[in-house]
Specification:
With about 400 residues, the chain is α+β, with helices and mostly antiparallel strands. It folds into two domains: about 90 residues, Tetratricopeptide repeat domain (Serine Threonine Protein Phosphatase 5, Tetratricopeptide repeat), CATH 1.25.40.10; about 300 residues, monomeric porin ompg (Porin, Beta Barrel), CATH 2.40.160. About 15% of the residues lie in helices and about 50% in strands. The radius of gyration is 24 Å and the shape is elongated.
């Protein structure tokens, strides 16, 4: 996309698209590489300074913006952007930044309890009939979510930083309170450039992770583990990410979920993602992943593998305060359990084939606030009628970014 790195408009479009898709580290690596090849590319230096400013590194932002302003042929528009950014950088004296998204709204699920469409199921290998609470049940709910990132810059050239990620989610239903949900998820660890060991354009992270889940206002499960991540910029428009997560899961039994502790065990998950910035308006990501769970009960132990595609589109239509953002995703997973569950069918182990799809439209109504409308679908096709179900969900809410 950067056939002419001296073209200020093209460089700005690339930098903005990279920031919007969350690949700031990749954008920094690409722009710095261009500057190493030609230090006179002032349009590149301007955008690099603005990216550093957005990421909360005022020192590197100030250095790059001051250098860009020394260019004798800088355009009036570029000068105004550089001067505004430089003023902000000089006011900022913090190495630690906090950013995130707060959201809330309502949702509808056609099958909130993931129940089968038919009441005819198996119990110990024999035909049985579920009560009305067990079959598919629709419901409305209100949700709230927060996604926070606290980054402490290590004041090195590149993406080196210590990062704390925190995600919170709560959902309250109108009728099915037994599926009210609370989730808190955390990770903490450093992002470090691997240039020093000869791996240019590669950054890596090792982080500890912790997840806490409540159902029906009671502790349901906790996960404790560690994750390793790697990001590799193949070109300014193409990057690869990979991660491995190992964690220990511990469930708590309750009156309604009396056998939850059968799922206690250790899970290892790995995945790889290939991202492609297709011009300033389109981005795509393909991904594949697999996992292995060794649980306390053999019939809860399982292998899982799948793949998917995510698309992002900014059509340039701005009905209120900024261009709308459309995202679409589709994925497929196969899940095979090690042994039959004697409480369901002592002769057959469970096998599921899961297809998920989603479509989201975000319409900015101010610089930080956007209206979000989303559609989600999940089809869980199982060889056991007890676990054969689908669910259609619709969401409407507000997102506030800071």
């Amino acid at each position: 996309m950067l056939a002419d790195p001296s073209d200020g408009a093209a460089v700005a479009a690339y930098a903005q698209a990279a920031m919007q898709t969350g690949d700031a580290a990749g954008a920094i690596t690409a722009l710095e590489r261009l500057l190493r090849q030609d230090p006179t590319l002032d349009a590149v230096r301007l955008e690099l300074g603005l990216i550093y400013l957005a990421l909360g590194n005022p020192g590197l932002a100030q250095a790059n913006l001051e250098e860009a302003l020394r260019a004798p042929d800088i355009s009036p528009d570029a000068r105004a952007r550089a001067e505004t950014g430089l003023a902000q950088a000089r006011r900022a004296d913090r190495r630690t930044t906090v950013s995130g998204v707060l959201s809330g709204g309502g949702r509808y699920d056609s099958n909130v309890n993931a129940g089968p469409g038919s009441p005819n199921v198996l119990l110990g290998g024999l035909d049985a009939v579920l009560s009305s609470d067990g079959v598919a049940s629709d419901d409305y709910g209100l949700f709230g979510a927060a996604q926070l990132t606290v980054a402490h810059d290590l004041e090195r050239q590149g993406p080196d930083r210590i990062e704390l990620g925190a995600r919170f989610y709560t959902l309250r239903h109108e009728d099915r309170n037994d599926f009210d949900l609370d989730v808190a998820d955390f990770d903490l660890g450093p992002w470090l450039s691997l240039d020093g060991v000869g791996l240019a354009d590669v950054a890596a992270r090792v982080a500890g992770t912790y997840t806490y889940v409540r159902l029906e206002d009671q502790l349901y499960t906790t996960f404790v583990g560690a994750r390793g991540e790697v990001r590799w910029l193949l070109s300014p428009d193409l990057w690869v990410e990979g991660d491995v997560l190992g964690r220990r899961q511990k469930f708590s039994n309750s009156v309604r979920r009396a056998t939850a502790t059968n799922q206690n065990g250790t899970e290892v998950t790995g995945g790889v993602r290939l991202g492609w910035q297709i011009g300033p308006d389109w981005a795509a990501q393909v991904h594949a992943q697999g996992s292995r769970l060794d649980a306390a009960a053999d019939f809860e132990s399982r292998d899982e593998a799948g793949a998917g595609l995510n698309l992002s589109w900014r059509p340039g239509w701005a009905p209120v305060a900024g261009p709308v953002h459309v995202t679409a995703r589709v994925s497929w997973r196969e899940v095979h359990y090690d042994a039959p569950d004697p409480a369901v069918d002592p002769a057959r182990a469970r096998e599921d084939s899961i297809v998920e799809a989603g479509l989201t439209l975000a319409v900015p109504v101010s610089g930080a606030l956007a209206v979000q409308v989303a559609f989600e679908y999940r089809d869980n096709a199982s060889n056991l009628a007890n676990f054969d179900y689908d669910n259609t969900a619709g969401l409407v809410g507000l997102n506030w970014s800071f």
